[in-house]
Amino acid sequence: MLSIETIRKETDRVAQACALKHVDADVRAVIALDDSRKALVTERDGLKAVRNKGSREIGERKRRGEDTSALEADMKAVGARSKDLDARIAEIENQIETALLSLPNLPDTSVPMCPTAEGNVVIREWGGKAARAPAPLPHHEIGRKLGILDLERAAKVAGSFFPCYVGAGALLERALINFMLDIHTRSQGYIEVFPPFLANRKAMTGTGQLPKLEDDMYRIPQEDLFLIPTAEVPVTNLHADEVLNARDLPRKYTAYTACFRREAGAYGKDTRGIVRVHQFNKVEMVKFCSPETSMLELESLVADAEAVLQALGLHYRVLLLSAGDMSFAASKCY
Q1: 25 near 103, Cβ under 8 Å?
Q2: How far apart, in whole angstroms, are the C-alpha atoms of residue 40 and residue 97?
């Protein structure tokens, strides 16, 4: 969440970020709300000073045997006004927090400032492309013929857009998860964690999933818990409300989790197979580091991810995403 100080200092940049990331937000209205809050706080603090002074004066008058009824009535009115201001300030602070949570993260200056994926930039490419078959089959047809993917029976259990891996397919899924975790932990120095697959509202808000993406999440209303959309949510919140020693940074974690998302992409596009699904498995990497080293740590994290693809001998490209193609919470993304 952006601070109100950042919004005041970089108002135009924040407004540009909203436009690039297709977020409808009135940045200057947030500043106006904060101006109102400051004015009310000043008035309330002044009234509290008046009330404190009046209380002392009432005590002194009573010791002298003087009538204090009029002054007490005045202080009662001051107290009532102060209480009203406290309620109004709390209301505005809630409005400000809601507004701040609706503002996207600022794109880094190295990111292409384009509102669409057309601004994405190919940074590098590795490996050779595999020869294309004369009549290539879609992956879901290959999976069905090999008996490793059974989407029809998955639909009987949970509905559309849920996968079911069978036999060698299930074995391959599990093997790939272990393969990635082993590289990250044994070769790259990450600490493996196996976190909860459910997260509370505070954790989901802290990683930028809420409030914007709440409709895309699976929620358990009785406990107000959410099925995690990515391992980033529980792993990032491992150190919530803690102060980490700078000497211990960076802290590098990797985690396997299943991930759950109600929104499975644009209907009618890539809707067959397992390209767009409500449930999928992912091995995640998360680093805790200082702001000053964050971009260097991002580059090394990308290199660690590339090492997996290189070990598998897979051809790939690294794209630097444009501001408009990044997620709401991202500052820079490959």
Answers
A1: yes
A2: 17
pTM of the predicted model over 0.85: yes
pLDDT digits (tens, 9 = 90+) for 134-189: 889 999 999 999 999 999 999 999 999 999 999 999 999 999 999 999 999 999 99
Rounded Cα distance, 307 and 313, in Å: 10
Give 199's contacts (C-beta < 8 A, 6+ positions apart): 225, 226, 228, 233, 234, 237
Give which of 7, 211, 224 is closest to 102, Cα–Cα.
Answer: 211
Which option is the CATH number for 130-314: 3.30.930.10, 3.40.50.2000, 3.40.50.720, 3.40.50.970? 3.30.930.10
Cα(140)–Cα(166) distance, integer angstroms? 13
Q: In which order are the strands placed within the sheet that holds 219-220?
A: 198-200, 225-227, 219-220
The answer to whether the bond into 107 is cis (omega within 30° of 0) is no
Cα 184 from Cα 40, distance rounded (Å): 52
User: Could you confirm whether domain 26-101 is CATH 1.10.287.40?
Assistant: yes
